[in-house]
Amino acid sequence: MLYIYLKALTQALRRNSFSCFLLFSLPPLLLVCYSLIVPNIYKSEAVLEFKLDGTEKSDFSGIASQLGGFASLAGINLDNDRNRLFIVLKVIQSRDFIYRFINDNNLKPMIMAAESWDVEFQKLRLDSSIYDDRKNKWLVRNAVGELSEPTDEETYQHIISNNYKVIRDKESGLISLLTYHQSPVFAQKLNELFVSAINSAIYERDINEINNKINNLKTMLHEEKNRLLKSTILHLIETKQHKLTLLNQGGEYVFQFIESPKVAEKKFLPKRIFYLIIGLFLGFVFVSLYALSKLEDVE
């Protein structure tokens, strides 16, 4: 019975050879052509080491028993290192950070209007239907029909979805910062800008946090009547103020490079070989279904 069906299937393929050829060849041809039209995407990767802040824990370990519940009232976390990385990773993917990063570096045209990378002239081409580079003018219309630039939220969603990824290796603790763009040069620049902005943002956050803690401790010092606790709180204030003077903004405040980002020499996407493989698979499926539909009844 199987032999009869195989013979009938072969005859169906022969009778409709031209149609089968078209069904088999068109999917890979169309997908490969599509992959040639899609702009190349380049990746830049930085490997970062997270710099733990152990000063606060060591400074307070000797007086933790004396402070007791007053530490939490003052906004002090004696196990700060345990949560610091989690907080930093949340901050750098937050809207507040990304919004500020976009506007401080004027990134909207490069992110939202990028079209393709000109290999010959080593220049990024912007989509002229979206942004007029000569006049620095946006050509897209908002919901009410007025010309306007993309909103911070639109740019944020685009960056998070297409240009920016943070991966933490659980075994080594190292952080991989990946940036993607049509321009390999801008992808590398974007990566460096991210690391610099992250270090600056966490530095500012730490400064504000320490100042708030000092103010809380001063309030406690003013209200406390117990001389021993007042002496302990005063020592804690001095320790905080000393830490404040030792903070060094520097270039690698919270993240330092293990491997700095490089300008990619080869594209990351599209993977054209995968388009070809998928096309061949679809062609085989289409031909098989077509041949089965042409099978004649067999006895």
Q: What topology emerges from the helices and strands here?
A:
Layout: H1 2-15, H2 17-37, E1 42-50, H3 55-60, H4 64-67, H5 70-73, H6 80-92, H7 95-104, H8 108-112, E2 114-118, E3 123-126, E4 131-132, E5 137-138, H9 152-163, E6 164-168, E7 175-181, H10 184-223, H11 227-246, E8 255-259, H12 272-293
Antiparallel strand pairs: 1-7, 1-8, 2-3, 4-5, 6-7
Give the domain tally.
2
* H-E string: HHEHHHHHHEEEEHEEHHEH
Number of strands: 8
Our measurement of the CA-to-CA distance between the termini, rounded to an integer number of angstroms, reads 9 Å
**The biggest beta sheet, please?**
4 strands, antiparallel
Number of helices: 12
CATH fold annotation of the largest domain? Bacterial polysaccharide co-polymerase-like
Query: What's the alpha carbon Rg, rounded to whole Å?
Result: 30 Å
**Structural class by sheet pairing and helices:** alpha+beta
- Percentage of residues assigned to helices: 55-70%
What is the name of the CATH class of the largest domain? Answer: Alpha Beta
Low-confidence stretches: 54-58
Strand content: 5-15%
For the largest sheet, list the strands in their spatial order. Answer: 6-7-1-8
Overall residue-averaged pLDDT value: 87
Globular, elongated, flat, extended or rod-shaped: what is the shape?
elongated
CATH architecture of the largest domain: 2-Layer Sandwich
